[in-house]
Amino acid sequence: MTGAPITFQACSACRQHWYFERPFCPYCGQAGPATKASTGASTVVAAAVVHRSADPAFEPYEPFCIVLADLDCGLRVMGQADAGVSVGDRVTGAIVSRGGRDIIVFGGNAS
Amino acid sequence: MAWISGAGATPFGRLEGSTSLSLAAQAAQQALDDAGLARAAVDGLICGYSTTFPHMMPAGAFAEHFGLRPQFAQGVAMGGATGLGMTALAQQLTDAGVLRTVLVVAGENRLTGQSRDDSIRTLAQVGHPRYEVPLGANVPAYYALLASAYLHDRSATRADLAQLAVLMRANAGRHPEAHLRDPVTVADVLASRPIAEPLHLLDCCPISDGGAAVVVTARPVAKHSVRIRSSAQAHLHQHVTVADLRATGAGQAAGSALAQAGIRLADIDVAGVYDSFTVTLAMLLEEIGLARHGAAGRQAADGEFGSGGRVLLNADGGLLSHGHSGVAGGLAHLIETVRQLSGRAAGARARDARLGLVHAEGGVLSAHVSAVLERQDG
Question: B296 partner at 20 to 30 Å CA-CA among B34, B56, B318, B347?
Answer without folding.
Answer: B347
